Amino acid sequence: EAQVTQNPRYLITVTGKKLTVTCSQNMNHEYMSWYRQDPGLGLRQIYYSMNVEVTDKGDVPEGYKVSRKEKRNFPLILESPSPNQTSLYFCASRRVFNEQFFGPGTRLTVL
Amino acid sequence: AQSVTQPDIHITVSEGASLELRCNYSYGATPYLFWYVQSPGQGLQLLLKYFSGDTLVQGIKGFEAEFKRSQSSFNLRKPSVHWSDAAEYFCADLITQGGSEKLVFGKGTKLTVNP
User: Fold this and answer.
1) Interchain CB contact of B43 with A (< 8 Å)
2) Does A89 touch chain B (CB under 8 A)?
3) Could you tell me if A33 and B44 are in contact, meaning their C-beta atoms sit under 8 angstroms apart?
4) pLDDT over 80 at B30, yes or no
5) How many Å lie between the alpha carbon of B108 and the closest alpha carbon of chain A?
6) I want to staple A34 with a disulfide (CB 3.0 to 4.6 A). Which of A46, A74, B29, B38 is the partner?
7) Any idea what DSSP says for residue A15?
8) Rounded CA gap, A66 and A63, in Å?
């Protein structure tokens, strides 16, 4: 089944404790992105990648890192999480000029 | 700046009534437009897309959307709403920016369906 998977789905952590949210797609898509969704602010893009080893900042990249070592994987790294990074995170992937597929989301709480 | 505007933050309709959700885009001689739906606690699912051709596009779950270039609009419609349509709806425009592409989303319209 064609899909984007994210893990974990739920995470509660404390300020400053490094964490990684994994994202994987099985559709051989070139583009992958991370978004955060907050009430009243809609979806905001954090980082995106056009292909392996090619990443770029989105609209709200501060406090996040990404890497794209393999085409299928695009992990999101929070090296020192803070409470303002409490949010719902979505990974997504797509082909060039095509529809985007979303993962199920990761709900992160930083205490 | 390129933007997608969904003027209605929240809409309430009765079950069985018709629905129209508005979307205006501000960029693109050739817009690539999408509507996504997010049910509570779920990810986003594609309802329909417009790339070119017929300006009335059909999607899943009985939804359709009409592209109107003169109004820069891509409104989503459904003739008869079901309680299961209660969700948040997002319009998006795929734009080219600095040699890459970006999917720009509206802020969403939350739909409540009354029995």
Assistant:
1) yes
2) no
3) no
4) no
5) 6
6) A46
7) T
8) 11
Chain B positions in Cβ-Cβ contact with residue A99 (cut-off 8 Å): 34, 46, 49
CA–centroid distance for B49 within its chain = 9
A93: its two tokens: 């992937």
Query: At A85, is the secondary structure helix, strand, or coil?
Result: helix
* HEC per residue, chain B: CCCEECCCCEEEEECCCCEEECCEECCCCCCEEEEEEECCCCCEEEEEEECCCCCEEECHHHCEEEEEHHHCEEEEEECCCCHHHCEEEEEEEEEEECCEEEEEECCCEEEEEEC
Structure tokens at B102: 């970006």
Tell me which DSSP letter residue A73 carries. Answer: B
Closest CB to B43: pick one of A41, A48, A103: A103
